[in-house]
Amino acid sequence: MDTIKAEANAVIQKVTEKVTDALAPQTPFQQNTPSIISHDHEYLTSNTGNRIFDNHNQLKVGPRGPVLLEDQFYREKITAFDHERMPERVVHARGNAAHGYFQCYESQAAITRAHFLQDPNLKTPVFLRFSTVAGSRGSTDTPRDVRGFAVRFYTQEGNWDLVGNNIPVFFIQDSIKFPDIIHAVKPEPHNEIPQAASAHDNFWDFISLMPESTHMIMWVMSDRALPRSQSMMEGFGVHTHRLINEKNESKYVKFHWKPVLGVHSTVWDETNKISGKDPDYHRRDLWESIERGDFPEWELGFQVFDDEMAAKFDFDYLDSTKLIPEELVPVKMVGKMTLNKNTENYYAETEQVAFHLGNIVTGIDHTNDPLLQGRLFSYIDTQINRFSSSNYHQLPINRPVCPVRNHYQDGFMRMENMKGRVNYEPNSFNPQGCPYTTSFSNRAFVTYPAMEQGPKIKHRSESFNDHFSQATLFYNSMSEAEKDHMVDALRFELGKVETKYIRERMIDRLNHVDNTLAKRVAAGIGLPGPKEPVGVNHGRSSPALSQTNHIKHTAKARKIAIIIREGFDFDQVSAFQKIVTDAGAHFEVISKWLGNVKASNGKEIEAEKNFNTTVSVFYDAVFIPGGKHVDELKETGEAIFFIAESFKHCKTIALAGEAVQMLAAARIDGLTTSSSVATVDHGVVTTQGSTGDNFNQFGKLFIEGVGNHRHWDRSKLPIFNRIAV
Length: 725
Known about the structure:
This protein is globular. The protein folds into 3 domains: 61-398, Catalase core domain (Catalase HpII,  Chain A, domain 1, Beta Barrel), CATH 2.40.180; 468-549, Hemocyanin, N-terminal domain (Up-down Bundle), CATH 1.20.1370; 559-722, Rossmann fold, CATH 3.40.50. It starts with a helix and ends in an 18-residue tail after the last helix. The protein is built from 19 helices and 21 strands. The strands form 4 sheets. Strands 2, 3, 4, 5, 6, 7, 8, 9, 10 and 11 form a 10-stranded antiparallel sheet that branches. A 7-stranded mixed sheet has the order 17-14-13-18-19-21-20, with helices on both faces. Strands 1-12 form a two-stranded antiparallel sheet. α15 (570-582) packs across α19 (692-707). 28% of the residues lie in helices and 16% in strands. By secondary structure, it is α+β, with helices and mostly antiparallel strands.
């Protein structure tokens, strides 16, 4: 007991020092900023006028203990935030969803008693909702943004909601800061500009004052924030959770979703054009994939570890701004999720689904992650606000598939009440029919009895203080192309920031990550680069963090454009269509106008799209066959632009026979092209052969190119920057 008191007194002393430090005229993270703390400053207060001591941490039992519900300031703040809008979600407003099922590969009884993870023959229904975070419901699918990845398992023992993102870390360590990060990224309140965009002063002002956000910013400025499709995104549970087996033994777990098609992205220019041409690009792609039977699939992976392993980490596993590198704890694949059914009514399903991290099943439990603890309160409060009732769980999309029996009653939207006289427990009128409590051994959910002790304080654990090591790890893990894209993204975002000292402060933040990165970004936004690095880049990397290591080398579900005019080579198109179909991809025929187009042999093929209704950014690759039609295509600006833009976006281009001339028309020169056999140069595949083995080899090279996703080395060619699109 004396030891506990001594530790408590030490923490209280630190908190006391923290109070003293808070009165200083300037805190470290406000360097290069006009002073915002002075004796005549208007103090931050609660709604009842109480001055706020700490706006960065929830009240916890000790620095790493559970959050206490008695923290009235946090509850007031998060409640005010949750109720800002009705009925649209404040965050994750723009979403789309689909139904499917999950099957485990083998029993996971050694680590969890969760029923749906025991029998590989059991198909557990799931509902998966994707979403963007910052934009409103009427915004676009493809901004630079985090994507929500929320999965509901309708298990035989209740609903389990695994509510995560396509990025494994988050901006903040404590959910008390969630209203602040979202307010900062949303349109600025004085003019409601910009929509679904982070390239503005408020966002970067907040980020530059929050060192803990640095790791997340590296992810958001990477290609991960520009997914090619929702079926090519990873998903993450973000937080550390618990798994509990039948012996009531506990281990920690991080949840991963690995897409079977690999992890792929668009490029920034392409993303912007898609947003203007088809704001529904991602939801359309998912819908059409399911309708034609290309069912998206993800493997569920577990990173399982215990206290002994965690003690060796150089970071805190309860810190949601940190990930566990797969080199430290490998991801074990435990099952597969398949989406095989589209929604029947968007509002009734996608819009009315109410996820909640508190929807949990026996065998899975929470930890003391302060971001997770705050979400447990915020989610249910949000749903009550959206539905104006606590009875939202009775809507069809939210109902569990197992029986529900309790004595809750009445209220707005209540559709089911217990019949008869009794509405309480225990009772002596209907003891046989009365629902009753049961035990852990009888499959009841029981919170893991972790030992907790410590003073009631608002304080953050010292183990949360390293804000840059993993940001550097992520940067070091990127390929050269990914690093280039990250630099371009930061130059764009910070180039939109009008306040100079915010840009300067962000360069200082980036210098904590990597000196070269900071210098490259500074050079693009009119600032001098830092001469010396802050610390030394530790040189560590994690291959799993780079998308280039998630390529599955498959053309499955890819979309190919075939461009023709009257006089095209019919045999080449027919052979190519079979090659594409056999590879699991699909194609669309494009011409000047819709309708049938006559080939050189008199046969016809229907053009499904024309240059008025489609553009290159909707496709993963393009093919133009040989034939007399090439003379006309060389004079068609839309066709020339289609090739030039595809080249600029590093996509695979296939040209047969006379179509090789389209390279010169698009001002693409210096590539090796074929006069007789199939060749490939930087993803441009050419041949003069019409059919037979030569054309089959041409098709094989094309499919290999599509399976590689993009040809990033193309951007190093001298001609690359001469092509204007």
